[in-house]
Specification:
about 290 residues, IolE/XylAMocC-like, Sugar phosphate isomerase/epimerase, Xyl_isomerase-like_TIM-brl, isomerase activity
């Protein structure tokens, strides 16, 4: 099954902050129709991260021929979740996820408490006919003990497959020293979204963050993650060295996988030019569609 190509709006976050509706129109003009949002202020904003009411956004998206196919919600709090889900249901979005707020995992007891929360969020989503998905970074490639399972494998083991699905970020798995294709195959029945970034050929860091950048045996805090993330280790998607066609091929038979979502954390170009360049480069791959 061909995967539809979407864009994570975090890629144009600065432009959205200045002009949300105008930026959406420009993203549509470039050719992206499927959007994943990123709301990192869910305590104060029930929306998708740039403070617009659901009814106005729904009309704007319809006029532009666009749709929201997912959204990161941070912080993920049960008491706030009903309002967030109300918002996304009005938009027609059927799934939400989380990304950065639950590391470091500290110990097994803490991990299990986080997994209990993920299951509860998944249950609240399921009651509304929606899905909850978990998004990884490279920290989930760590292990509590040498030779044991990775944190990611333990999250999957301690969550209900019918309640907690996967948004697999291939870039961050490569940066954790793990081949994401192995996890695509292992968890294909839970896979609903792929995040695709790219790594430049002449990057200033090794692709594996644990190869001298971060200590594999220590907790990776939010501050460590932020301070060691080099903007020059990102490039427009399809212009770098990651095996993107192999990733697409591996995910082609995952039963719930509909969208491969392009995301650019940092760029040396204007944001809209960057996503246009990614779109142009991404057309060379097989097994994808744009509308």
């Amino acid at each position: 099954m061909a995967m539809k190509v979407g864009i994570q709006l975090y890629s144009v976050r600065n432009a959205l902050a200045e002009d949300p509706y105008g930026t959406l129109a420009k993203v549509a003009d470039i050719g992206f129709k499927y959007l994943e949002a990123a709301n990192h202020d869910a305590d104060n904003d029930d929306g998708v991260g740039f403070g617009v009411p659901a009814d106005k956004l729904r009309k704007s998206l319809a006029d532009l021929g666009m749709s929201i196919v997912g959204s990161h919600i941070n912080p993920l709090k049960l008491e706030r979740l009903p309002a967030v889900l109300d918002y996304h249901q009005e938009l027609g979005n059927k799934q939400i996820g989380c990304d950065t707020e639950f590391y470091p995992y500290k110990d097994m007891d803490y991990l299990k408490r986080r997994c209990d929360l993920f299951n509860k969020v998944g249950e609240m989503c399921k009651e509304r006919g929606m899905r909850y998905y978990y998004h990884n970074h490279y920290m989930e490639c760590q292990r509590f003990e040498e030779g044991g399972p990775t944190i990611y494998e333990m999250v999957m083991e301690n969550t209900d497959p019918s309640l907690v699905f996967c948004e697999l970020d291939t870039y961050w798995f490569f940066r954790g020293g793990v081949n994401p294709i192995d996890y695509i195959k292992k968890y294909k029945d839970r896979l609903v979204l792929i995040h695709q970034k790219d790594f430049p050929e002449n990057a200033p860091q090794p692709i594996n963050m644990y190869d001298g950048i971060v200590d594999h045996g220590k907790e990776v805090t939010r501050e460590i993650f932020r301070d060691t993330k080099d903007p020059l280790c990102f490039t427009e998607i399809g212009t770098g060295i990651l095996p993107i066609q192999d990733i697409i091929n591996a995910a082609s038979d995952a039963p719930h996988q509909e969208y491969i979502v392009l995301e650019q954390d940092f760029t040396q170009l204007p944001e809209l030019e960057s996503i246009k360049r990614s779109m142009d480069a991404f057309h060379k791959f097989n097994g994808i569609e744009w509308a």
